[in-house]
Design brief:
It is built from two helices and eight strands. It is mainly β. The protein has one domain (about 5-125). The strands form two sheets. Strands 1-7-6-2-3 form a five-stranded antiparallel sheet, with no helix packed on it. Strands 4-5-8 form a three-stranded antiparallel sheet, with no helix packed on it. Strand 4 and strand 5 (about 70-75) form a beta hairpin. The protein is globular and about 45 Å long.
Length: about 140
């Protein structure tokens, strides 16, 4: 199940997360990770990140922000090219900072099972309708 972390909206409204100026990253996680909406920062979950291999570094990669509007955030696809095997069950989107406690979690994407690639591209194809969509109702 995909989740948005509970504290994301507080951090967004307080200005702690700014999609226009902050570095937003996406990282891959093992099947032993149990996504909890109550997790707040990278420090809470980093022990479940996949082991770095050729083409994948600890902390994942910068996520290209394509557009930010008042209703949605659109991002480019994430691609890791490897000569080894990458296996992951989740991807976590977070704000990057120097302190793990200030690397605020945004959302978690559940692949519903282990996904693997050997000697190729491990790609997360984000929905063109946006990473996050906001609806006021």
């Amino acid at each position: 199940m995909n989740i948005v972390y509970d504290t994301f909206f507080n951090h967004l409204l307080n200005g702690d997360i700014d999609f226009d100026t902050d570095t937003i990253k996406v990282a891959l996680f093992q099947n032993t990770y149990n996504p909890l909406t109550t997790s707040e920062s990278w420090a809470d979950i980093s022990g479940f990140e996949i082991t770095p291999v050729d083409g994948y570094v600890a902390g994942g990669q910068d996520l290209g922000i394509v557009s930010v509007t008042d209703k949605k955030i659109t991002v480019s696809n994430a691609v890791w090219t490897t000569t080894e095997t990458i296996t992951a069950s989740y991807a976590v989107v977070y704000k990057d900072e120097t302190s793990d406690g200030e690397k605020y979690l945004i959302c978690c994407i559940d692949f519903a099972d282990n996904r693997s690639i050997t000697a190729g591209d491990f790609t997360i194809q984000f929905n063109t309708t946006g990473l996050l969509n906001f609806e006021v109702g």
